[in-house]
Amino acid sequence: MRFVAATLALVACALSAGVSFAQEEPYLDDRSSPQALVKSLYNAINRKEYARAYGYFSNPPAPTLDEYAKGYADTEGVTLVVGTPAEEGAAGSTFYSLPVAISATGANEQVFAGCYTLRLANPQIQGDPYKPLAIEKGALAPVSGPIEAALPTSCPDAPALPAQNAALERAKAKFTASRLDSCQIEEGNEPQAWDIEFHYTYDSQDEPARKFKLIRFYCARGAYNEVHVYYLADDMGELNELHFAQPELDIRYENDDHEGKVESVNVIGFTSADRLVNSEFDPDTKTISSWAKWRGVGDASSVGKWIFRNGTFTLVRFEVDASYDGEIEHQTVVDYDSGP
Question: What does pTM read for this prediction?
């Protein structure tokens, strides 16, 4: 309990005058999951509703509510990122270990990272008074660098994840931390994952197949496009965000409004994209395809195809229809996919 109080006081002292959070943040009081409860804690702090924040702890983080509130006298707001909790059952209760990172915004920004431990006594065997999910303790420490890189992938005392889930959980934590500003991160929007078995060209075919895991996250959605981010976990435990080769195009029209006749489409180089639009993975052919619509009807658009081989995804085909003419007639600009 003293450690929690000291940690919260340290966070409070790191904050100084800045943007007011109290009137901007909608009220949130949710104990349905460890993530929701910790989000509710910082929602209460940002709204200066300290009695509510104090009540989320099963062991008071300060001797009295007044002392707890005084620790936040100069606090203007906290930005929070949460990871994926690990859970373990013991003596009729479920304990959760939740990785978190917070940014204390103000004249001098300070980032803290660590874990909260939460406990839920089995609701089916509880009596009166009922005890909901509550925070048992927290352990946060100052760290250097931006909040996006500070989120721990796991908690030191958390139960080990099953091997088949470890890569997925690490990808969730990495995606949440690195894509906080560039993607619409929504709780409950679970990623899709596929196992890929293969042999490197230098592997003997008698050896067991290598097993990689491909993970796709929803990132954003527009009127007619959905954007995805991909991660690939290899058989050595390394996890990387995928970037996809794409051609840089020089498109010439007969006039300047981009709606006239297309005079030419030329590849003038290659770039790398960290997101794909309207993408799908075919586990049978081990290919990722995308169809990026330049407008809703899809008459102007680009189509790409990347095949998994020798441990990575390689661009093998790219097609473009640059004419806004109501017809879908793609022109192939990159082709390493067709036979001789």
Answer: 0.64
**Residues in Cβ contact with 314 at an 8 Å cutoff, skipping those fewer than 6 apart:** 245, 306, 307, 308, 336
* 188-206 mean pLDDT: 89
Distances (CA, A) of 25 to 20, 45, 52, 281, 312: 9, 11, 15, 38, 43
The single-letter code of the amino acid at 153 is T
pLDDT digits (tens, 9 = 90+) for 91-144: 678 889 999 999 877 657 788 999 999 999 888 888 888 999 999 988 899 998
- DSSP lists the bridge partners of residue 309 as 312
Average pLDDT over residues 187-201: 88
Say yes or no: 147 and 293 in one domain: no
Same domain? For 132 and 199 the reply is no
Among 1, 53, 62, 68, CA closest to 22: 53
Nearest to 293 by CA among 306, 285, 302: 302
- Is the same domain home to 257 and 124? no
C-alpha neighbours within 13 Å on the C-beta side of residue 260:
8
Q: What domain count does the chain have?
A: 2
Nearest CA to 59 among 139, 138, 140, 136? 136
Q: Could you write out the DSSP letters of every residue in 155-179?
A: -TTSPPPPHHHHHHHHHHHHHHHHT
